[in-house]
Design a protein that fits this description.
about 375 residues; five-stranded antiparallel β-sheet; Pre-mRNA-processing factor 19; nucleus; DNA repair; transferase; WD40/YVTN_repeat-like_dom_sf
Length: about 375
């Protein structure tokens, strides 16, 4: 009787051992895949991948269901897509070299710029204030704004008509992106959601619940398929805008809120923790402009990781947004006023004082 019992226990132990080995192998493979995905995104500082909290999917305004927030992960296909796009963009930039685009405005022309029009009334008069803006790269006459009234508005400056009013956020709209090739808008809010909109019919196409706190930064990947977001919840996230799905979510190693982030022109991630108000990459991918709460703009050479220029502004000056033009010749600053600088010489070419409050965003047209 003892021999059959011993044989059974031995068989059972071997079965458990085999099952445990299979589980360990599977987990090891998943960890390796996650590490490879994070290394592909190349964050600037150390981060740790975390599991997103579980929230039930829910239906929201317009009948759009929010996707579950469990991170789906970066598949080999997505990683390959990011790498291929980075290679194409890098080669394209090297091919252009230092050739200036045709029709680039001269510094003398910039000095003569003046305000052509002012468009009040794009947002609610009872809760006024525009907090963010972006311009459609394919059609610069279309301007996207987000406001205190919890709405995003698309405005045609040529016809002076409102094209769409995008309603759905439960708190103010603090970040807004206009897809460069499509009639698609992406917005973010302290309500912790990122929303993707079809501008043509003013409807929500996706709600991304990637964060547990106010969303502070948005950047669209060069593929036009993915969005990078940052939040006061101390995480940055990478999401698919087509299906509204969180792909990966990463915690800051220093456990501090993340206030802004932007993709490198080649599609690699650069994020900045701490009280950074704005950042912008030069199109050549070598230079980065940053602004914080110390009333100065710092210019960085990413090849040397060195701060090579600091523009000291007036005491108490608030910087809200920065933007290099497509050629990397000019840098625009929005905040207490709006200024345009000539790069390399860092000369102030033009200052606009038309706003009665801080300017929250600035962009160059074609």
């Amino acid at each position: 009787m003892k021999f059959p019992n011993t044989l059974w226990y031995l068989h059972h132990a071997l079965y458990q051992h085999d099952a445990a080995c299979r589980v360990i192998a599977r987990l090891h493979k998943e960890v390796s895949t996650a590490r490879e995905a994070l290394s592909t995104l190349k964050p600037h500082t150390g981060y740790a991948a975390v599991a997103a909290p579980t929230l039930a999917a829910s239906a929201e305004a317009g009948g759009v269901a929010a996707q579950p927030v469990e991170a789906a992960g970066l598949t080999p296909e997505i990683i390959s897509q990011l790498q291929d796009k980075a290679t194409i963009l890098t080669q394209d930039r090297k091919r252009r070299g230092k050739t200036m685009p045709e029709g680039l405005a001269t510094s003398e022309a910039v000095k003569s710029y003046k305000t052509l029009a002012s468009h009040p009334g794009l947002h609610s008069a009872s809760n006024p204030g525009i907090l963010t803006m972006d311009v459609h790269a394919a059609d610069p006459s279309h301007i996207l704004t987000g406001g205190n009234d919890r709405c995003a508005t698309v405005f045609n400056k040529d016809t002076e008509q409102v094209v769409a009013v995008l309603k759905g956020h439960t708190k103010k709209v603090t970040k807004a992106l206009y897809h460069p090739e499509e009639e698609v808008a992406i917005t973010a809010s302290p309500d912790s959601t990122i929303r993707v909109w079809n501008i043509t019919n003013s409807s929500q196409s996706a709600i991304i619940r990637a964060h547990d706190g106010p969303v502070t930064g948005l950047s669209l990947h060069a593929t036009g398929e993915y969005v990078l977001s940052t939040s006061l919840d101390q995480h940055w996230a990478f999401s698919d805008i087509r299906v509204g799905r969180l792909l990966t979510k990463v915690a800051d190693a220093d456990n501090v809120p993340l206030t802004t982030a932007q993709f490198h022109p080649d599609g690699l991630i650069f994020g900045h923790s701490g009280p950074i108000a704005a950042l912008s990459f030069s199109e050549n991918g070598y230079y980065l402009a940053t602004a914080a709460e110390d009333s100065c703009v710092k210019l960085w050479d990413l090849r040397k990781l060195k701060n090579f220029k600091t523009i000291q502004l007036e005491e108490g000056y608030q910087v809200k947004d920065l933007c290099f033009d497509q050629s990397g010749t000019y840098l625009a600053l929005a905040g207490t006023d709006v200024r345009i600088y000539l790069c390399k010489q860092w000369e102030t070419l033009k200052t606009f004082n038309d706003h009665t409050a801080a300017a929250m965003g600035v962009r160059f047209g074609n």
